[in-house]
Amino acid sequence: MTHRRLALYVAGINFLLLGPLAAIALSLDPFPGPSGLIWLMGWRRVQVLGGAMLMANGAGILTDAVPARQRGMALGINQIAGIAGQFIGLLLGGLLAAWDWRAVFWVNVPIGVVGTLWSYRSLREIATTRRARIDWAGNITFALGAGLLLAAITHGIQPYGGHSTGWTSPWVIAGLASGAALLVMFCVIETKIAEPMFRMSLFKIRAFAAGNAASLLGSTARGGLQFMLVIWLAGIWLPLHGYNFAVTPLWAGIYMLPLTTGFLLAGPISGYLSDRYGPRPFATAGLLVAAAAFCGLMLLPVDFPFWVFALLIFGNGIGSGLFASPNTSAIMSSVPAHHRGSASGMRSTFQNSGMALSIGIFFSLMIVGLATTLPRALAAGLHAQGVPLATANQVSHLPPVSTVFAALLGYNPVQHLLGPSGVLATLPAHNVAVLTGTQFFPHLISGPFHHGLIIVFTAAALMSLVGASVSLLRGGQFYYDAPEAAGAAGPRPRGTATPSAIRAPNGSSPRSPSHRGAPGRGGQPLPADTEM
Length: 532
Fold this sequence. Notes:
The protein is mostly helical. The protein folds into three domains: 1-125; 193-476, Up-down Bundle (Growth Hormone, Chain: A); 477-532, no CATH class. It has 18 helices and four strands. It has helices at residues 3-27, 33-65, 71-99, 103-106, 108-122, 136-156, 170-190, 206-240, 248-255, 257-277, 280-299, 306-333, 340-384, 389-396, 400-408, 413-418, 429-435, 440-471, and strands at residues 478-481, 490-493, 518-519, 525-526. Strands 1-2 form a two-stranded antiparallel sheet. The protein is globular, with a radius of gyration of 25 Å.
């Protein structure tokens, strides 16, 4: 079985066939407590594995199927489908969870079955394929290295030894160090073997390297935004406006609709324009618009006018949409056709790595900000409502991460904090009503939370600005076409004349055989310079 067909086959089987089976297993969780959590995490890994295979191949399939001058538009439409699916899933998941949490997994079954039938009926292999060996050494070192890093980041945002975060934990430090060492080993391995999982030689292509670096910075800046906005809305703004904590996660998703709308509108438009005028101005402008939106969010009060908030997150969505499809099109068009599968996987890895990093970075920044101001405010507020001073001091020094996640998941934070002590049962009804109402906690946390928001959004704005600077370095618009019949491969500048009798497999025109790039590893030609 050829390399590309194998990737598509595995992606379809794992995601579209094993996905429904995993969904059924998730809904039938037979264990309570921690054992049930392990069951859920195990089967979710099956779904994630298939989803990763699908994401890694999607951009490559579109790049092969669509002519070069229409790739930006095609990727923009694909972007609409993905974002629309996420938003529909958010709303549908919230509605189904209110009925039965198992229904959230059941809905995957018919979607997976229909997707399976459609993919096997409609998808056809059109790219030039070849046999390839599995890079076992690269796969193992990358999986172990990335896994250790992600596990360390996850534990890093949890409290340890009296600290608000766990970054001083020996296990976290060891995980970060060993994960980084394995990834360095992975990079060395990939330069030594003939058929690597990550083709490091592709980074010699400036458009590919700059596009992926900008994608990493942009996704890191954007990834934590949604979590911060959900906490802001669910934990403070919505309760202040009369919403019960139990329904705030669903309504937070609805109130974030302007962010999704901006993304949906800008994606295909920027893709179409980038096909005509090149990706660099639109991708760079998108990150600059996102940075401006982050700065605007820093200036908002905690209890903001919604129309201002909606306008700012709409602008952030516009910026993200302006960046995404031109940047993906530029990355995928800059590599030889026979390396597009690898390039698509590398692009997806950088993008998702940024999302994972953002969780650790932004949550740590938020928690550190809360830890400096929240304990004093929380202790004073609880004691003023009759909570004994010793209990108030004890509760106020609990890790802020528990309070943050309580608000994120729709639990009443004060009930979450005071419930184990039983103190609520000893207080007058009026004080209990105040403590567990929708006004006490939002007013209490608004000052410390805003302090944390400024730290987080400052970091996001700086990442976006650095990403915009990197995006400027990608060079002008070009396409790297490598038709087998022409016997040549290399970067083709915009407007270069090509033999009309020879057509590339992807529908774009190949460049003249005389224009060759510098040879890459394994005899594959790569461009020495891509600046137009």
